[in-house]
Amino acid sequence: MKRLTLEATGETTTFLKTTKETDGKYLEVVIDQLPGQKGPSSHKHTQQTEYFEVIEGLAEVISGNKKVILQPGESFTIPENTYHTYSSVDQKRLKLKVKLKPAFDMEYFLEQTYVSANAHHSENASFLDNCYMITEMKGQYFQESIPIFIQKKVYPLIAKIAKRLALITVKGIKDYEL
Length: 178
Description:
This protein is of the alpha+beta class. It contains three helices and eleven strands; from the N terminus they run ββββββββββααβα.
């Protein structure tokens, strides 16, 4: 079973079902966040539905204009193309089962985000690596805090320059093996 660890925080992502194992139908992981960690910044998957189920802790899920608190055993579905995020409500350990349907390139994105964050001794991927990965995802994933126009038009230019200057620490999708 593939498991990623974010060295700066101890957060882990364990792959229950990989893209290869499901023939791309879905990707299923368990994200285990230690107390005090934040979830990801608000983002959307343009063509994927994301399903959250709380295993341990209390999760606040924000999806579009909705905010829900989930207890262990409760779940919530994020429709495709909807900005969302999650975090621990009680500052205790949060363990979530996450399923993305279809899988598309999210396994690549998750794994390479950990690679970049660990390479830079950070909780997050570097800005340059993030530009590169979002460009590689070809419209599958967008961050809410950055205008989509910038992510579609400016990020590819930044990524291209950074790649030429050997400033990218992650693999491209073509070089990534599932």
